[in-house]
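Hi support team,

I'm opening this ticket because the web form for multi-chain structure prediction keeps timing out on my end. I have pasted the exact lines I submitted so you can reproduce it. The total is 812 residues across two entries, so I didn't expect it to be a heavy job. Is there a limit I'm missing, or should I split the entries? Thanks in advance, R.K.
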Amino acid sequence: MRVTQSMIASHSLRNISQSYGRISASLEQMSSGKKISKPSDDPVIAQRGMYYRANLNEITQYNRNLSEAFLWMDNSEAAMEQANSNLQRIRELVVQASSDTNTVEDRLAIAKEIDQLKADLVEVANTKVSERYMFNGTNVTEPPVAIDDAGNVTVTAADTAYLVEVSRGSQLKVNANLNALLGQGLFDTISEISAELTGNDTDLDALLADLDGHMSAFSAERSDLGARYNRLELLESRIQYQEDLSAKALSDNEDIDLEKIITDYSNQKAVHEAALTVGSNLIQRSLVDFLR
Amino acid sequence: MTSTFHGLETAKRGLVAQQTALSVVGHNIANANTLGYSRQRVNQTAGAAYPSPGLNRAQMAGQLGTGVQAESIQRIRDHFLDAQYRNESSKLGYYGTAHNVMTEIEGVMNELDDTGLANSIDTFWQSLQDLAANSVNAGAKAIVRERGIALAGTFNYLSESLQMVRSNLESELQVTVKEINGLLEGIDNLNKQIDLVEPNGALPNDLYDARDNLIDELSGKLSIKVEYVSNGGNASAQAAGTAVIHFLNGTESTTTLVDKAGYSVISVTQAGDDSAVDTVIIGDSAIAASDFVSKGKLLAMMEGYGYMDADGNVKGEVTDMMQELDQMAFIFATEFNKVHKAGLSVNEISYGNTDTLFFSEEDGGSEPADAKGFAGRIQVADAIIDSIDNLATATTSSPIKGDGANVLNLANVIYAEFNYKDAGGNDSPTVEKSSLIGYLQKVIGEMGGKTQTADRLSSNSETLLQSVLDKRSSVSGVSLDEEMTNLVQFQQAYNASARMVTLLDECLDRIINGLGLGGR
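Hello R.K., no limit was hit. The queue was backed up. Here is the completed structure from your submission:
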């Protein structure tokens, strides 16, 4: 084949620009840290990357939703702990008041304390977390329990579930049912106890049995919340595991292998320099240089 | 008997012929880097022998040569390689342009970073999830509104950017048509100049090169077939003649672009709302855009910009992508609005159900009416902009202000599967359904695949074109080494002929001045 100067020139130019192109691609990968910079570099990586990124965003969001769930459950638990000690105290006082050794004044004092504890229970039932009533189902803008000046308590709590989505399509109820915890019945019983004591009536056995009934309902609801809290903790560790997996998949898919890129880059650089040197020697030589 | 000065004449012919050859070498060296230049050679032939046969020929020992003559100056060119080059050039023109178009679209729809549509959808969903967990929080509501505006804004931005790409393509398409007409006119002009020269027996080599350059350039824009028709007269055997250029639509040639009579002007007509390319008119014949398959830049521009297919629908890479966006925006907005209208906002609970929209047409108040161009018009409805309390957070089953059940329903619209392929949203077992994100992933994946294919095909045809170009350059290119060798060769031949003149001069000197004294 006949070879001309312009062929050699255009060949070396093409080869040099190709090797320059490869170097530029390596540099781009190194500086961005990503294998691809546009979908057409590798449509499969691009499409998978979109999927993994959406997936990671989703899991991150569910992880954030979990903190909302924890907020509710932790606050509910704290409120219930307080309610529980109040109820225990009421029971103690009722038992104490049942004794015939008490004077009328003693009973009146006990009744007063029970009234105070009742008012405190109302406060507990109206606990708010970040401006929302926790024990009124989804009706978070309205207080579930009202108490008038005479001490009459009205419970209007909704028993709807306050749901937080914890994974696609799966929701966890994060609130406790006030009607089971501190329902109208309980407040009525406490009011009756107080009334009996004020009336100096010592026959409190029936009311004590009622109170015990309400307290066991309270415990049942509380352990129900405890069980859901356990589930929440399980979910949290699972979601964090998923988040790790997802982040790893995303990284495996599109992040560069730095060692490999650097090795490739060094090779390409050596080839490029050789091409430049050879090209500069080759192009300027022709017979013209050797004729006198 | 030959003439006394026969030898001098022979030597003179030698001098003239070598000088011609030296001039041609000089011309070649000067044009070593001229684009499309073919090296030229002097065809030297021995002069007619003396005496020529005949009854009254001179009686001699035999025929005596009369030296050399420069018979013609011919360019070295292989027409087979030209045909190959033009074939590959059409393919490169087509795939290269198609790749450029796809790269433009890809530049707009680059979903790999955190600024794309996918990210807007994700953050919108996240804001809804945050609101669902805390549905009375005014801050969370305001964020949903802002993210909604950002999502609509992303749709608008992408739609506008694609529209921009499309209008750039339109002007480039028109420029391409103009370029083609310019080339055709240039080829026609050169044909006419060549027609003036050839019948005289000369070879207009540099005009041939200029014409071949134009034909090469034309082949990148349209598929063509070239035929040569003799110009008659006293044309040399090596004369190329008039180039007749046939337009190739696929493999059949239906129309002549350039012939002896002149050239056909090419133009395109546009029709419809999208002013898509409707017909390509070449001279007197019109070709429907859907039947136009002539590989080259023009076809790729048409396919990028948009043309009318056989059913009268607009097809084209940019218009297809715009349509996908419109479909996504329209169907998502419609479905989102359905859920939003079904829910109850704080205001609706207080003042009665008004079925508020979340996304609306450009006017801010009306329902999405037409999918066409909707991505450019989608907006968050004025009612939501005016008050975040118009956000339908509650469901009708528990119409209380604190209820956030509908927010989850709204968030689920993003992951719910719909038929995004069809603006009618028709549901049948034969259509595929996908979520908004899933559909976007599919669209981006397809776009990436198309761009990659166009890239591969264009670099393939570039390689092939390069190899044909190498072959052509191997035949027609100027080699400086070769020219220098020729230079030495012709110079020596010239010197030798000059020496011959000196020798004959000495011979004649001997006869005229040194032989006897007669006539003195």
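A quick check on our side: Strands of chain A lie at 128-129, 132-133, 145-147, 153-155, 163-167, 170-173. Let us know if the file doesn't open in your viewer.
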